[in-house]
Write a structure and sequence with these properties.
The protein is an alpha/beta fold. The protein contains six helices and seven strands, in the order αβαββαβαβαβαβ. The two termini are 18 Å apart.
């Protein structure tokens, strides 16, 4: 749900760093959930440039993948984009001879990665109501999230409101 070199570290950064101390980690940067606005062109260009060299080592046991997103986040385009990103992640794993034992997903747009990488287990770590963010297709994001929760072996939320919203369908739900 973030870029690796964000000015502010968030949960996904801390989880990746902690896990990388024990096992190899591939951190997949967020592709976002909305089409960039015209004033965000610098960020869009930076994302395109990072995707030229998609996998890079940033620390011992920790690599970052910058997938090239499709600029489609509304309706069925969101599902197509998440599948496209999942294909890129699966290809990067295959090229490096890696296998995904565990897939931690922090955003509904990570559904395609969780499906395509065929990990032994999937954890959805939900820290926000992403469908409520401005500029996103709430219906598309909710649909992806429902599929992700159904797929996840464990869903973790950062508070009771998120747990209540997701609580009707997960196999296992934990509140931090």
């Amino acid at each position: 749900s973030a870029l690796w070199h964000s000015a502010t570290k968030v949960n996904c950064h801390f989880v990746a760093e902690r896990l990388a101390a024990e096992v190899p980690v591939l951190f997949v940067e967020s592709v976002g959930a909305r089409t960039p606005r015209h004033h965000e062109w610098r960020r869009a260009v930076a994302r395109l440039l990072r995707s030229i060299r998609p996998v890079r080592r940033v620390a011992d046991g920790l690599w970052v993948l910058s997938p090239l997103p499709l600029p489609m986040f509304r309706g069925k385009g969101a599902l197509l984009t998440t599948r496209w990103v999942g294909l890129q992640v699966a290809a990067a794993l295959r090229v490096r001879g890696w296998r995904a034992d565990m897939c931690w997903v922090f955003h509904p747009m990570g559904l395609g990665t969780a499906v395509r990488c065929r990990p032994r287990a999937v954890t959805y770590y939900c820290v926000d109501d992403y469908a409520a963010n401005p500029g996103v297709d709430a219906t598309a994001v909710r649909s992806l999230e429902r599929e992700l929760v159904a797929l996840a072996d464990l869903t973790v939320t950062t508070g009771p409101p998120l747990a209540q919203r997701l609580g009707s369908s997960p196999r296992r739900l934990e509140v931090l």
